[in-house]
Every structure is written in C-alpha cells, then in structure tokens.
C-alpha cells in the first residue's frame, strides 16, 4: 500500500490503536516464558501516560507483519517510537534472550525502522558488554557530537570527546561559582544550591563531572527531580523524550542499563552501575510520567545542548514556562516523585558530602529543605 503525506494519521492514538500497540510491545519484547513483572509494570505505566488509554496486558500476540500493516498510516517518527518502546522493554531483561532481540529486529524491519540500540541489545544478549559500552557512544546520542557543540558548555578548551572531563578550567569553575551571586529563586542560583547541598564539585575543578553531564543538573531543577538514582532515571527519561531526534533514546537506554540491569559498569564519564532501581515499587510510574512531561514540551528540545548560562538569571518558573514543562501527574507524586528540595530528594551520601564541602568552605551546612527518604 502506497501512503502519501495526505494519508498519514497525525492524530493521537485512539483506544483501538493503543490496544494493538500494547500487544505489539509485549509480543516483541516478552521472553518465551512470558512478560516479566517489570515489563508488565512498564507497559502498564507508560502506555496510559503517553496515550491516555489503559494498556492491554494479556491480549493475543501480533506478528511483525500484522503490526506493520496496522501502522502503515503512521509516519517514521511514530513508528520509531514503537520500536524504542520494544527496545526499552528488552533492556530490563537480564539475561536478555537473543530471540527477544531478533524478534524486535523483525518488528523494526517490518516497520522500516532502524534503531542502533538494537545493536547494543544484541551485544548485551551475547555477552559482549565491553563492545556494547563502546557502541553507546558510537551509535547513540553522542555519535553526532562535534567539538563546536561545546560552545554551550563554556569550556576554555575544545572538548574532543563528549563525556570528557576537564579538571583544570578555572574560568569555567569561576563561571559556575558566580551563579551563587544570582537572586534567590533564579535557575542558576538554584543549581548552585543543588550542588552545595550535595557536595557536588563545579565543572572545571578536580573531581567534577564532565561538562556535558553537568548539563543534566540544570534539568534536575527545571523539571523538579531530586538526585537519587530513581530521580536520575526520571531526569533522563524526561531528556530523552523531549528530543525528537531518535538518538536521544540512547540516553534513557544508558541509565536503564546502569541502574536496572547493570549491563553497563559505568557511563557518561561519571555514573557507576547500581542495578535494580527501575523495578522498585512506583518507579515505573515515575519514569513514565517523566516521558510524558518531556513529550509534552513544545517542539524538540535537546536539553544537553542548551546554553543554560543564558537562562541562569531567570526565575525557575519562567524558564519552565519558556520550555512548556507540564506539572507532574498526581500518580507520579503519589509514587514518590520528589524535587531536589524535598524529603527523599537527596541521598545520605550526598548529605555527608554536602556537609564536608560546607566545612571546608567555612560555612554552615544548608540542604535547602532536602533530606533523605525515611527508609534510607
């Protein structure tokens, strides 16, 4: 069937289409023994968050060809999102059966979609974890990195590799420190409070994060997410889904592989693996809502390439309005989604680090309202 641009369906999916989509996700990604508890939680959370309709968890299987026929009036971007949902569900499996990757590949081929994270998934399935780590950079978000992209980071020297840290950039460190002088409630001031409360080191100083990774710290404040591992999953779900470039999905794939399955031992130049967080109670709901919020931001936003210093002197609420950031859902808040300044928005380790930083600076420690969750 030949589909012209006028024939494309650009409307949000209705209940009937969502039912077929749900079946396709699980038909593609479920192992032979059936969908896992975590996979079912993710489908049950993400489908209604993104479509407004409940997921179908136990419908009949659908073949790649049947699904492609059903999707024939959807454009490339929509079909790419379908494959990414399948890959997302596969990446929470450990072990990841090769037949699952092959099945998703068959769906991708039928839909005429290429997703390089399928290469990574196959490497996970076959035990080539070192090669998979390389391919996250070679085939994912940072594949299109160019040294001129570092302009938004304000580094003194060119950055040849995207996650490259520079522990000796006094001008960059001074630029970050100057944010402390901004009025209360501005984006830049709140970011410095995020850093001081947690003992984070400003980029350009020894022990700091790579400047590109530090970009996501602004998003913690913009989107109102704490700094626990679960909140990192939320932040990167929000960042990935805000970006219309399909390569942005690799950022979510990276943190899932770090913080759920542990396929990756490290990532983004600083993160270390800590498995089992996505499958915790309520986290699927929180991640799904972060995806929803990112998708609802108007246009395509590459939040890791934003010049945040140009917005630093604006009130946080104004910056949120500029990007059209919607509020969190009641379900996500009930599931434990908190901001940087709330109980549960900081870890005990970060409190200790913030206290030590304050002592070295000769000032009282101020967590700015944040405290660890009671169970921590």
DSSP E strands, number:
2
Rounded to an integer, what's the Rg over CA atoms? Answer: 21 Å
Taking pLDDT < 50 over at least 5 consecutive residues as the criterion, the unreliable ranges are none
Strand order, sheet with most strands: 1-2
Structural class: mainly alpha
Termini, distance in Å?
57 Å
Account of the 3D structure:
The protein is mainly α. Helix content is 49%, strand content 1%. It has 16 helices and two strands. A two-stranded antiparallel ribbon has the order 1-2. The longest helix has 15 residues. The mean pLDDT is 95.
Question: Which characteristics define this entry?
Answer:
single chain, 376 residues, mainly alpha, two-stranded antiparallel ribbon, 16 helices, 2 strands, 49% helix, 1% strand
Tell me briefly what this model is.
This protein is mostly helical and 376 residues long. The protein is built from 16 helices and two strands.
Mind sketching the topology for me?
Blueprint (H helix, E strand, L loop, with lengths): L14 H15 L7 H15 L12 H7 L5 H15 L7 H13 L6 H9 L3 H11 L30 H9 L8 H12 L12 H12 L6 H14 L6 H11 L6 E2 L3 E2 L10 H14 L19 H8 L6 H5 L13 H14 L15
Antiparallel strand pairs: 1-2
Helix pairs in contact: 1-2, 1-4, 2-13, 3-5, 4-5, 5-6, 6-7, 9-10, 9-16, 11-12, 11-13
């Amino acid at each position: 069937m030949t589909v012209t641009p006028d024939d494309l369906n650009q409307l949000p999916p209705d209940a009937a289409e969502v039912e077929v989509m749900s079946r396709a996700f699980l038909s593609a990604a479920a192992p032979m023994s059936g969908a896992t508890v975590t996979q079912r939680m993710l489908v049950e959370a993400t489908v209604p968050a993104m479509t407004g309709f409940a997921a179908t968890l136990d419908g009949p299987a659908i073949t790649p060809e049947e699904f492609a026929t059903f999707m024939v009036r959807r454009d490339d971007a929509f079909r790419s999102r379908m494959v990414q949902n399948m890959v997302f569900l596969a990446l929470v499996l450990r072990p990841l059966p090769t037949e699952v990757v092959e099945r998703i590949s068959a769906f991708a081929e039928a839909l005429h979609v290429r997703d390089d994270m399928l290469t990574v998934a196959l490497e996970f399935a076959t035990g080539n974890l070192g090669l998979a780590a390389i391919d996250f950079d070679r085939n994912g978000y940072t594949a299109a990195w160019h040294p001129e992209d570092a302009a938004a980071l304000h580094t003194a020297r060119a950055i040849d590799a995207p996650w490259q840290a520079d522990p000796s950039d006094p001008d960059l460190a001074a630029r970050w420190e100057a944010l402390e002088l901004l009025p209360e409630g501005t984006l830049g001031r709140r970011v410095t409070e995020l850093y001081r409360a947690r003992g984070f080191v400003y980029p350009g100083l020894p022990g700091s994060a790579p400047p590109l990774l530090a970009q996501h710290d602004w998003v913690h404040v913009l989107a109102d997410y704490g700094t626990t591992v679960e909140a990192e999953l939320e932040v990167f779900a929000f960042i990935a889904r805000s970006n219309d470039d399909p390569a942005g999905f690799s950022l979510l794939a990276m943190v899932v592989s770090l913080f759920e399955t542990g396929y990756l031992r490290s990532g983004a130049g600083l993160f270390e693996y800590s498995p089992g967080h996505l499958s915790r109670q309520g986290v699927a709901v929180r991640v799904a809502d972060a995806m929803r919020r990112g998708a609802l931001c108007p246009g395509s936003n590459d939040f890791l390439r934003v010049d945040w210093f140009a917005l630093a002197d604006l009130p946080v609420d104004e910056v949120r309005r500029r990007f059209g950031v919607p509020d969190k859902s009641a379900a996500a808040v009930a599931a434990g989604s908190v901001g940087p300044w709330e109980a549960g928005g900081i870890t005990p380790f970060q409190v200790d680090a913030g206290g030590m930083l304050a002592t070295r600076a000769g000032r009282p420690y101020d967590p700015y309202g944040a405290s660890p969750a009671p169970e921590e």
